[in-house]
Write the C-alpha cells for this entry.
Amino acid sequence: MLRSFKLRSLTVVGIRGIVLSVPLSILLVIFSFSQLMPVRFVLALIFLLFLPGFDVLEIFYNQTIFLAGLQRFLISVGLSIGIAIIDDYVLTFLAVGINLSSLVACLAGETVIFSLIPLVSRKVRAMRTP
Amino acid sequence: MRPSRYRALVYLTLVLIIGLGGFVRGVSLITNGPSVLLDLDAFHSLRAVDSIMSNGKVASFDPLSSAPNGTRYTFATSQGYYGFISSLGLVAGLSPSESLAISPVIFFVLELVSLFAISLSFSKSNVAALLAPLFAIGLTGWSAISILGADPVAENLGAAMFLISILLATLLSNRFSYLLIGLLAFLDGITIQAHPITYYFLNLTLVAVTFTIVRQRTWKLAKGLILAMILSLYSFLLFALSGASLGEGETFSQAAYWLASLSPHIYTIDNSTLVAEMGAPTIVLAGVAIIIAIRHRASTIYPLLAWVAVLYSVVLIGEIAVFTPYGRTVESIPFSAPLVLSHRIMPYLPPALCVLAATTIGEFTLPSLISLAKRVRISDKIIGAAVIMIVLAASSSQLYHAYQYSTIYANSFNLEPRYSHLYDWISAHTSNDSIFIANDVSIGVYIKAIDGRPVFFTTSQEDITVTDLIQRASVQTCVFLPICSTNRTISMIQSYHISYAVIVTPALLINQNSSSLVQFSDQGQLANYLTWFRSRPNFAQVYNDSNSFVFSV
C-alpha cells in the first residue's frame, strides 16, 4: 500500500520526465558530435518525436490523467513535432542559426527544463501550503 | 485470458501489421536503398531541406522559382516540414536526401498507430482498431501519397498531424477540458506548417464534427471545439513569419484551376478513382457502417460520418469544377485550390473510410456473430478466428495489389539514374544562370534540384503561382509542339532569356491551345520529332544520349 502510494506520488511530481529527460539529454550532448550514427538516429527520434511533448504533458499530469497510454504517446508525438518546428523559427529569428550545436542545446535544454517544471511547481505548492 | 496478456497480444498484432505495412510500402527502401528519392515533390523538398541545412535558417524565398521575387511564395508552403526534416538530418547526422528518404517510414508508422487509436476511441473494439491500419496498408495511388516509403512529401507529416488532431478532437467531443482545447489549438495551428492544405481540410473536418456535437445539444463540448479552432488562428502568424501571405494563396487558386482543367484530369479525383485506390471491399464495408450508423442512430460515430461527409464533398466539388460548366464558379470561391486539386484530399479521406470499414466488422458484425454462435453453441474463439480468416482473405488481393503498385512505383518513378548523364552534362557544360526549358512538365524539378539551374516552367506550385501563367504555358507549348509560327516562338523565348531546350522521352507535354496534357513516349515518333526540332532556326543540338537531348537557343 505504502509502496504503491509512493510510486503514484513520484509519478505526480513528474519524476518520470526527469528520469527520462536528464540522462537522455546528457547522452544527446555526448553522442551528437560522434560518428555513432545508429545511436544519433535513435536519440534524434526520441528528442524530435517524443520527449519534449511527453514532458509538457507531464506538467499537466493531473489534468491528463484520463488519457490512455497510447493516446498520451500520440499526443506527445504531435506536441514534440510542433515544438521542433517552433524551435526552428526561434533559432532562425534569434539569428543563432539552425545547426547541430544550436539544435542539440535547444532540444536538450528545453527538455530538461520542461521535465523540472512539475517538480518545482510541486515544491512551490508545498511551501505555500501552511 | 488475463487483460494484461490480451492487451499485449493486441499490441503485438499491431506491430505485426505495421511490419507487414513496412514490407508492402517499403519496396523502394529495400530495393533502391535508403537515400534514393522518388517522384517529383521529393526533389522540391530536397532543395528546401538542403537550403536550411546549409544556410542554417528557415528560407523565405526559393531563388530557382518562377514566382517573382517579392511574392515569396515558394518554400513557404511547408516550412515546418522542411525544418523538421532538416532538424532530423542535423541531429541524426544524415544527408538531406537520407533524412528525406527515411522520413516517410516514421510518418507511416505514426499514421497506422493513430488509426489504431482513433478506431479504438470510436468503437472500443480491439478488432476494429487492428483492422483500420490493416485496411490502410492496402491503399494505392494518390491515397498512398502519405504512407509510401521513399516518397517524402509534406503530406506525410500532414497526414500524421491530421490524425493526431482528430484523435484530440474525438477526446474533446467527449470531455470538456481547457487543456485539451489548448493542445488541439496548438496542433491544429501547427498543421499549417506541414502544409496549408492539411490545415484547410482539418478545419473543415473540425467544423463538421462540431455540427454533430451541436446536433446532440452538448453545447459546452461544441464550444470547446470552436474555441480550439479560433485559437489555432495563431498559425497565420507563423505562416506570415515563414514568408507567405494569403494573397499568394489566392494566386495559387487560379493556378490550381488552370492545372486541374488540363485534360486528362489527373489532378482531380472521381468516384472510380476512389474505389480503385481503396479497394471495393473497404468501400463497401465503410458504406455498410454509414447505413447502420444512420439507421440505428449510432451517435458515437457521428463525428466519423461528419469527417467522411465533408471530405467526400470535396471530391464532388472537384468533379463539378472540372467536369461541368460550373468550374469558374468553383474557382471564384476564395482559396479554392484544395477543392479543385482534389487529389490532395487522399491522405485525409481514405483513413476515415478505413476506420468506418473496420468499425463495421469489429463493432457491428463480430458481436452479433458471437451472440448468434452462443445460441448454436459454437465457441466465440472459432467465430473470431473465422472472421479474421475471412477478412484476411478479402483484403489479401488488395494488399497484393498495393505491393505491386509499390514495386512499380519504386522502379518507374526513380528518375534520377535514368537521366544521370544529362544532369552531369548540364552541370559541367552550362553556366549557373542559364535558363532551361524542358518538354516534360516534371523534369525541370530534377534539373533544379540536381544541377541548381533555373527552369522556365514546371507544374510545381512555385512555378505556376505566377501572374503570367498563361503566357508561360503558351511559350512551353510553342517551343515543343509544332503548332506556332517560328518567329513568334523565337520572340517569346528571347523575352524570357531562355538559353537551353531539353527534350526527354517519355514526357508529358502541355498544349495550352487545347488545354491538355500530351503524352510523348513513342520512340517511333521521336526521329520525326527531332528532325522537326533540328530544322528550326536558332536551335542547335549540343548534347544527346539514348533518351535525352539538349539544344542551345
About this structure: The two ends of chain B are 76 Å apart (CA to CA).
